[in-house]
């Protein structure tokens, strides 16, 4: 076996897959990894479920397979000194601590079933102010966050109701579920979360970093089901069994915060944008809590140790990024492979026209926060083909990023001079050039694409009691650079068309009629015929006048 120095592992439990990667702690090089895709289910419109046991089983299998890979590479698995976890945020899981079984499917972060609960809560808020709780938790009242998903489970799932009544219920996001199971599960598993994941629940006080009694009362959530909140970098516990038994889990970050750390954005004013299923831009505001008045979220960026300074960020969250390309492939069948999008769109010339696509499948997130928005495609002509639709889908990702940058500029008073990017979609060179053109700033793409997992590895390897991560955090990250190539006028025209399309996407939820006020279908139909007849008569009269 080769001894190449300390190794640090990172579990990356994303929306579409679970991966386990091993890094060299001296160089940040990825030595090996294993990945398993995770299935999502949509039992009803706007619902997105996952199986918590599938997530756990995939994680355990990834650990086993990576150990095999290391041995094949003649690298000693005993050189692994720590493991970090990064995860899809807001996805909500509840389980029985006695049996270890989930009490219902996990509700995924993009799920919109809690829209009705949001409306009910707003009925009890003065002026139906969506930002009523922001001073406490930094977040607007939205179906996006975990508290709403948990409240839905408590209201609609009898197994959850009974488990809470019997005090046999634990709640957590994906990080909590994995750490509890990997450290023993029903046999003394550790029930914790970190400050970054807790800051996405709407239940943690953004200042004290503790579960807030006022928020728990507002949502009527019992405190005993909640995990203990810990920092992002400390030893939480050790792997209970399997080939990595005894190795400490010592880092935990929500995936977007982990990418911020992996991009080395440790200075106030630095920002990164991650392009995955959704798109998320985080702007490091340092130890100061920046309150947004333009649709951004206040969130914890990281806390690298129990006694370390808490660092905060402004975040712009986009629900649909890579997801729209999957939709074009799986629902419309106009893409055989997402990777083909770059070549297909090269056939378009400026004379082909301009199509704008707003992918609001489950409403719009930042900076609009409009849950009644739905997708629209504008500017279609008889010459429109699949290439135009694909290009418009790619541009939509870039326009949504510009929306966030414009809002952050208003909140901070400072425009970003460049944008650091990461995530699976950044392998598309056309998308990166579009992003530079639409935002009018250079886009930096690191050569090492695994920045989300890298952040978890940095947190784990830097923890007190480990201290084996030896890469200089101030070092420059080698990157590709994409520079703007269109004029300011062209950029503004494109963005104006995007804003017009956004207006057309709003207000698409059907109106709800009270039970005692069902519309008169016959009267409505008669009225419609009357309007059509009137229009026809006017057209005939106009035609006769022209003769």
Class from secondary-structure proportions = alpha/beta
Q: Helical element count?
A: 16
Distance between the termini: 95 Å
If you compute it from the alpha carbons, what radius of gyration comes out, rounded to the nearest whole angstrom? Answer: 25 Å
- Binned, the helix content reads 25-40%
Strand percentage lies at 15-25%
Backbone shape: globular
Number of strands: 21
Sheet with the most strands, sense and barrel status: 7 strands, mixed
- Stretches where pLDDT is under 50 for at least 5 consecutive residues are 511-547
Q: Strands of the largest sheet, in order across it?
A: 15-16-14-13-19-20-21
What does the average pLDDT come to? 87
Give short descriptive properties of this protein.
547 residues, alpha/beta, seven-stranded mixed sheet, 16 helices, globular
Give a verbal description of the structure:
The structure is a single chain. With 547 residues, this protein is α/β, with parallel strands linked by helices. It contains 16 helices and 21 strands. The protein has helices spanning 52-72, 115-122, 134-137, 146-156, 158-165, 174-182, 195-198, 213-219, 255-262, 322-330, 341-344, 386-412, 429-439, 451-461, 488-505, 521-546; strands at residues 7-13, 17-24, 30-37, 49-50, 80-87, 93-95, 106-107, 170-172, 192-194, 228-230, 233-238, 248-254, 271-275, 279-286, 297-302, 311-318, 356-358, 376-378, 419-422, 443-446, 479-482. The chain has a seven-stranded mixed beta sheet with strand order 15-16-14-13-19-20-21. Strands 3-2-1-5-12-11 form a six-stranded mixed beta sheet, with helices on both faces. A two-stranded antiparallel ribbon has the order 4-7. Strand 13 and strand 14 (279-286) form a beta hairpin. The longest helix is centred in the C-terminal third of the chain and has 27 residues, at 386-412. The protein is globular.
